[in-house]
Structure formats: structure tokens, C-alpha cells
Amino acid sequence: MNNEFEPKIVAFVCNWCTYAGADLTGTSRIKYASNVKIVRFPCTGRIDFMLLLKAFANGSDGIIVSGCHPNDCHYTSGNFHARRRWILFRSLLDFMGIDVNRIRFAWVSAAEGAKWADIVNDTVSTIREMGPYTEYRKAASFLAENEVELAKEMEVPQ
């Protein structure tokens, strides 16, 4: 029996490029780790990075955010918006004590199925070496267990 840790990874991907690239990976029968669950968005510019924190709270050990290459966005500049948000989000991650290496930001076009497989395999390998992510789960369980008490503390008297 294999007791090796298998990470849970969520991928937030662009519909037009990365999702199509992941589809090409499958249709080309390129093998890659099955640890990744894909969430498809119209564009990486539409991804609210609070969803990434929510993914950690729901048990994800790592995250991939991937979309069209710069200047190749279906919506003209969505990937530039995502890149700017990512730069700011990294500061928030540092502040919260979340290792930035648990999140991978990449550009993958619809024609780069092999690149998608490499990114997935590399991310799974990196997260496997880092081990399970438990710190954010502790905070999430504390919030869930004390939701009523915390809500009372947050109430504003009328």
C-alpha cells in the first residue's frame, strides 16, 4: 500500500486558452497527474482571488491559475488584469503567511497541451514535496466552529 501524500490541487483556468490546452492534452493522450480539478472561467481577468483563499479553506493543497498568453486574450486585456491582481495578491499571501509556492500562475495557449501536462506534473511534484497544507484549514475550522459567537461580536447595535 502506498502511503505517499497525494495533493489536492484546484486549477482556475481560462475557457479560451488553458481549458482548450488541457482538452488537447487529453485528446493527445498525454499523461499527467490526476490530482487537479479544473474550474473554468471565461477569462483569468474574471477570477476573484478570494476564490483562491476559499479553495484553501475547502482543503486544497495547491492552486494553478492559468490563461492566455499576454496580448493573446480573447477579451483583449483580461490576462493583464489578472497579472496585476496576482502581483497584489502575492503581498496578501505573504501577509497571511501562505507560502506563495503553493500557487502557480502560468500562461498556456490552446495549442500547448504538452505544456499544460508539464505544469500540472511540476505543480503536483512541488506540492507533494511541501506536504499537506493545514494552516489555513485550522483557521477555517475555527471560523466554522465559532461562527455564531463571531457573528454576535460583529453585530452593530442599532
UniProtKB/TrEMBL annotation:
<keyword id="KW-0560">Oxidoreductase</keyword>
<dbReference type="GO" id="GO:0046872">
    <property type="term" value="F:metal ion binding"/>
</dbReference>
<feature type="domain" description="F420-non-reducing hydrogenase iron-sulfur subunit D">
    <location>
        <begin position="9"/>
        <end position="131"/>
    </location>
</feature>
<dbReference type="Pfam" id="PF02662">
    <property type="entry name" value="FlpD"/>
</dbReference>
<keyword id="KW-0408">Iron</keyword>
<keyword id="KW-0411">Iron-sulfur</keyword>
<protein>
    <submittedName>
        <fullName>Coenzyme F420-reducing hydrogenase, delta subunit</fullName>
    </submittedName>
</protein>
<dbReference type="GO" id="GO:0051536">
    <property type="term" value="F:iron-sulfur cluster binding"/>
</dbReference>
<keyword id="KW-0479">Metal-binding</keyword>
<dbReference type="GO" id="GO:0016491">
    <property type="term" value="F:oxidoreductase activity"/>
</dbReference>
<dbReference type="InterPro" id="IPR003813">
    <property type="entry name" value="MvhD/FlpD"/>
</dbReference>
